[in-house]
Model the fold of this input.
Amino acid sequence: MTNWRQNRAPYSDTHDMLRSQAERFFATEVAANGARWEAEGKTELDYWKRAAAVGLIAPQVPEEYGGAGLDISYNFVITEEIHYAGAPNTFTTHSDVCVDYLIRFGTEEQKQRWLPGVADGSIVMAIVLTEPGAGSDLRGMRTLAKRDGQHYILNGSKTYISNGQNANLLIVAARTAADSKNISLFFVESNSEGFARGRNLDKIGQHSGDTSELFFSDVRIPAENLLGEEGKAMSYMVQELPKERMSIAVGCQAGTQRVFDEVVKFTKDRTAFGQRVIDFQNTGFCLADMATKLQVGWAHLDWAITRLMAGQLSVTEAAAAKLWHSEMQWEVVDMALQLHGGAGYMNEYPIARLWRDARVHRIYGGTSEIMKEVIRRSIV
Done:
């Protein structure tokens, strides 16, 4: 197969320079700290600062706020290398999902206040949507922000929040009226009185990325911390969803490439009945199927990134990308574990963690079933 890191249509020599930096950084960090992060359930905040120091945090932050002033395609290069290395995916939540809400919809005062910290790794962001009784359908949200003079009073609870333990700047979705469609977004700083972190949740996979319960009890939010206009959260999220879902698709594709490289290496080294496992016809056919899916996946991914950068990628196309790449990843990683035999079930082999970590991609950012519903509605 061709080298997936080279001669990619959406990327330039500048992207390749950033990729080389990212490849080295994440390989080094995972080798030195990966096992500890998995055991502790989160990364240290200095990891964020180390990454920011070499340009791997939110490269799209404009130069006037301390960033590199690049576009989202540079984020995707970093996201590919994060997932290929098997590094914690916490940066993608921060850089690929949260930051553009502040850049696109924030006031000048909000940008000056927070973007420099976002770029230098001292501010970690999380987007706080999901509730115990409201997942993909945000109309079931119960968290309420009630106006009180120059403040809003925020009450509610959230769960499954990525970066929930480390984040010190939260974008919180809450109802601002009885109407279930009247949802607004607020910036909440973690030192706010009445805010509390719950458990760092015990997940099947992605152990090194913190995922939390969060609680808000009469949290007084200054009115100037409203993000954009009141009641416009759903509109803002619809605008940002294509980038979020493309980020997931990018991670799935690069993660699948890592799985393929691992299984090729393993089956070349492993013998059974006097020959290499890779020399059995069944193994070869399985690998051929994986290689074909990867070839199609890289071509589709680059097509979708190109359309996104041109402002042409629709919500439906982004949903289809997220659906296809996450489902394809699961097919490949499950077969790769099978080809490892009993070794695949042992945590000492990378495939075990890659298998665990891949499963959630069919769930977060909108489940595969929700993606199919988005696509269905564009057809009927």
Notes: The mean pLDDT is 95. The longest strand covers residues 151-162. The chain has ten helices and ten strands. The radius of gyration is 21 Å.
